[in-house]
Amino acid sequence: MNGVSDKSITRRRFIKQSASIGIGLSGAARAVTYNNEEQEGGFMSEKSQSIMDCYGLKYPIFQAAPGGEALAVAVANSGAMGAVSLTWDTPEHAAKVITRMNQATRRNYYANFVLHFEPTMLDAALQAGCPIVQFSFGIPSEDIVDKIRLAGAQLGIQVSSPDNASKAMERAPDFLICQGLEAGGHVQATSPLEDSVQGVLDAAGETPVLIAGGISTGKDIRAAVDAGAAGAVLGTRFMATQESDAHDVYKQSLLDAGEDSTSYTLCFNRDWNAMHRVLRNSTLRKWEAEGCPDTGKKPGEGDEVADHPVFGPAMRYETIPPLQGHEGALEEMAMYAGEGVAAVNDLPTAGELIEELWSEYQGA
Ligand SMILES: Cc1cc2nc3c(=O)[nH]c(=O)nc-3n(C[C@H](O)[C@H](O)[C@H](O)COP(=O)(O)O)c2cc1C
């Protein structure tokens, strides 16, 4: 069961989905255990220690999928778990991303696949040596899991409720991510973390659970660990770093945002009809002012709001956020942010951010 597959969707139109290339399942994935002699001090639960030992991490901190390769490499090389998003890639491009990642870091990182879309690039990613595969918005089929195991890779699944976690556990994942309604970006959760975490932890048993949604500070990470999680996943916070591929306009908007700056909405659904959390901007306000009409009746939906030398034109209500290289009315595009955005007040390098988070964690 791969969720809803829709090969016609071209969220990132520079990358056209094409037929999956064959995979020689020869154990191409790298070994995933490293010596973590540099592990940092500070309170560590058994579960945090165990996931850090397993993946050679210095910190129980995971980056969420967005942000681009440079960010993922910087995060991984700083001792946290880096991440790349491959959902909208062709097999050829996915293989190139994984090859470049493996050349740029000897540390672990994971590749995210949103299962609302057919993972046609998974085989290529595994063949190129993707060490860890992580799924969201669906539970991977047994066939998919077999492929991952045969390739020697590890498996993570994002869940959002105890029921969902029980189903995910049938695939024997190496870790779960529990996402809450507080999260930025596309949100599979329908309840806040406080309603789901304990049930997910119970369903997971000995399997480590990372918590995602609204986490921006070391204090938040410590609270996640105190609640029984092995660590935390941060998306919005890592978008506001030097290495992230977000456009400067988007980064500045994250820095300017306060407590009431985000909305959980279906506004930007032109190419993926799923709930998401974004910064409130002029496109969202105008759509709301007109009563949140359906597609076909949305104000300005024929407008081309921005262009990009590689990704091409972006229409209003498209899911692509303003990335480096975009030109146009960038404020009118989807700028994803979680509820923790008010605590995002600087633009450090990924390494500086991780140090900062860790010192806050230790002080918490
Ligand atoms: C800009 C942005 C893009 C995202 N893209 C994806 C994605 O491609 N796949 C996915 O599973 N989650 C995606 N997410 C959600 C994250 O995986 C994660 O759940 C979320 O960032 C956690 O909440 P936080 O942003 O408050 O830290 C995205 C989040 C953001 C902010």
For this structure, the CATH topology of the largest domain is: TIM Barrel
Category from helices, strands and their pairing: alpha/beta
What is the CATH class name of the largest domain?
Alpha Beta
Give the name of the CATH superfamily of the largest domain: Aldolase class I
Number of helical stretches of at least 4 residues? 12
Total discrete domains: 2
H/E topology pattern: HEHEHEHEHEHEEHEHEHHEEHEEEH
Give the end-to-end Cα distance, rounded to a whole number of Å.
Answer: 42 Å
Portion of residues in beta strands equals 15-25%
- How many β-strand runs? 14
Query: Uncertain regions: pLDDT < 50 for 5+ in a row?
Result: 1-37
Strand order of the largest sheet: 1-9-8-6-5-4-3-2
Task: Offer a quick outline of the entry.
It contains twelve helices and 14 strands.
Explain what the structure shows.
The protein has 364 residues and is α/β, with parallel strands linked by helices. It has two domains: 48-244 and 344-363, Aldolase class I (TIM Barrel, Alpha-Beta Barrel); 262-336, no CATH class. Helices cover 31% and strands 15% of the residues. The chain is built from twelve helices and 14 strands. It has helices spanning 46-55, 69-77, 91-104, 122-127, 142-150, 162-169, 193-204, 218-226, 236-239, 248-256, 282-289, 350-363; strands at 61-63, 82-85, 109-114, 132-136, 154-159, 175-179, 185-186, 209-212, 231-234, 262-265, 276-279, 304-307, 314-315, 327-328. The strands form three sheets. Strands 1-9-8-6-5-4-3-2 form an eight-stranded parallel beta sheet. Helix 6 (162-169) links the parallel strand 5 (154-159) and strand 6 (175-179). Helix 6 (162-169) packs parallel to helix 7 (193-204) and helix 8 (218-226) crosses helix 12 (350-363). The longest helix has 14 residues, at 91-104. The radius of gyration is 19 Å and the shape is globular. The relative contact order is 0.14. Flavin mononucleotide is lined by residues 64-66, 85, 87, 112, 114, 136, 158, 179, 182-186, 212-215, 233-237, 239, 321, 336, 338, 340.
